[in-house]
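Private note to self, pasted from the team thread so I don't lose it. Backbone tokens:
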């Protein structure tokens, strides 16, 4: 059950952070780079969620 929570939180925060990055260089929230970075951030967040869950089990 905790694994699902970590994965959801990681995907949510990673996608939000990745989608926000293009604003730092003057891009739009609805640009292609924002969508692609949002996907990349979500995947990175899921990976980090797995790592956190594995570390908490030890």
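Design output:
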């Amino acid at each position: 059950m905790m694994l699902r929570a970590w994965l959801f939180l990681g995907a949510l925060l990673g996608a939000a952070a990745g989608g926000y990055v293009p604003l730092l260089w003057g891009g739009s929230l609805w640009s292609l780079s924002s969508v692609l970075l949002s996907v990349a951030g979500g995947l990175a967040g899921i990976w980090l969620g797995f790592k956190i869950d594995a570390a908490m089990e030890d």
